[in-house]
Amino acid sequence: MDAEQAAKTKLKEIGMRITPQRVLILKNIIAMNGHLTAEEIHRELPSFITLATVYNNLKYFAELNLINELSFGSSCSKYELADTSHYHVICESCQQIADFNYPLLNEVEYAAAQVAHFKVHRHTLEFYGLCQECKKKK
Amino acid sequence: MDAEQAAKTKLKEIGMRITPQRVLILKNIIAMNGHLTAEEIHRELPSFITLATVYNNLKYFAELNLINELSFGSSCSKYELADTSHYHVICESCQQIADFNYPLLNEVEYAAAQVAHFKVHRHTLEFYGLCQECKKKK
DNA sequence: TTTGCTGCAAAAGTTTTGCAAACTT
DNA sequence: AAGTTTGCAAAACTTTTGCAGCAAA
């Protein structure tokens, strides 16, 4: 299935109206497969789509757990597809984000839910440090 | 040792100039012992201290690892003292943050550093869900 | 005395919003 | 036809900055 079809399918699944804007935004997130800012996504889109529309839809997508909003580090949020489970390693010098695949910490999540009396439905784990290039520069 | 003395000691330790503004800001963070926004900290301070000064100093404090900046969830960052090791449980409905004490995941941190070729010096772990009150409301 | 810090005010940057027109279902 | 979504432009918010005067070492 190509990214466009995947985007439409996802939108249908979560019951959102399928507009060209939404399909294009989601398609780009799927195709670029990274950690993108609203601005970066907008830059790839045809110019009739406004940045406000991008922001509004990213917000909806995130609320419906289609994407994750990553708000650590730099001043603006980054977004990624929510369908892969992994953690993040972040360079504090150049802000680059790397994915880190590791078995999910389900027992820890369970313990946190018990102790805090929360209904926990997901967790994130971030490692902060210096990437290889920035390490060398110091 | 009271919060004021503790604040001065900490400032001296990290080699910052001791100004009344800094002592008051840090004293408040110590005394309130929570997860505070710049605005909330500013509100507690005498009015001659400007919000810009609060922001600037929070940034310095965070760079020198005196405090942690928590930037998940809501639109503005929250700050906490950096001297306790714990994780966070966040309510996605009311934005409340609870602390969760748990042994540090040092092996996972080591694995992440190896895989990503990063020099990792810290990590954070956040659990997202609903707190007891918000659970009831649904 | 030197250097760094603060207040002030303004700027910068990100994200949200109101509304009429256009589009999806 | 009903109800959403979009573009546009402006607003709202958080955070940063420039600079002159002041304060800490």
From TrEMBL, chains A, B:
<dbReference type="GO" id="GO:0000976">
    <property type="term" value="F:transcription cis-regulatory region binding"/>
</dbReference>
<keyword id="KW-0479">Metal-binding</keyword>
<feature type="binding site">
    <location>
        <position position="91"/>
    </location>
    <ligand>
        <name>Zn(2+)</name>
    </ligand>
</feature>
<feature type="binding site">
    <location>
        <position position="94"/>
    </location>
    <ligand>
        <name>Zn(2+)</name>
    </ligand>
</feature>
<dbReference type="InterPro" id="IPR036388">
    <property type="entry name" value="WH-like_DNA-bd_sf"/>
</dbReference>
<keyword id="KW-0408">Iron</keyword>
<keyword id="KW-0804">Transcription</keyword>
<dbReference type="GO" id="GO:1900376">
    <property type="term" value="P:regulation of secondary metabolite biosynthetic process"/>
</dbReference>
<feature type="binding site">
    <location>
        <position position="134"/>
    </location>
    <ligand>
        <name>Zn(2+)</name>
    </ligand>
</feature>
<keyword id="KW-0238">DNA-binding</keyword>
<dbReference type="GO" id="GO:0008270">
    <property type="term" value="F:zinc ion binding"/>
</dbReference>
<dbReference type="GO" id="GO:0003700">
    <property type="term" value="F:DNA-binding transcription factor activity"/>
</dbReference>
<keyword id="KW-0805">Transcription regulation</keyword>
<dbReference type="GO" id="GO:0045892">
    <property type="term" value="P:negative regulation of DNA-templated transcription"/>
</dbReference>
<keyword id="KW-0963">Cytoplasm</keyword>
<feature type="binding site">
    <location>
        <position position="131"/>
    </location>
    <ligand>
        <name>Zn(2+)</name>
    </ligand>
</feature>
<keyword id="KW-0464">Manganese</keyword>
<dbReference type="InterPro" id="IPR002481">
    <property type="entry name" value="FUR"/>
</dbReference>
<dbReference type="GO" id="GO:0005737">
    <property type="term" value="C:cytoplasm"/>
</dbReference>
<comment type="similarity">
    <text>Belongs to the Fur family.</text>
</comment>
<dbReference type="InterPro" id="IPR043135">
    <property type="entry name" value="Fur_C"/>
</dbReference>
<protein>
    <submittedName>
        <fullName>Fur family transcriptional regulator</fullName>
    </submittedName>
</protein>
<keyword id="KW-0862">Zinc</keyword>
<dbReference type="InterPro" id="IPR036390">
    <property type="entry name" value="WH_DNA-bd_sf"/>
</dbReference>
<dbReference type="Pfam" id="PF01475">
    <property type="entry name" value="FUR"/>
</dbReference>
<feature type="binding site">
    <location>
        <position position="123"/>
    </location>
    <ligand>
        <name>Fe cation</name>
    </ligand>
</feature>
<keyword id="KW-0678">Repressor</keyword>
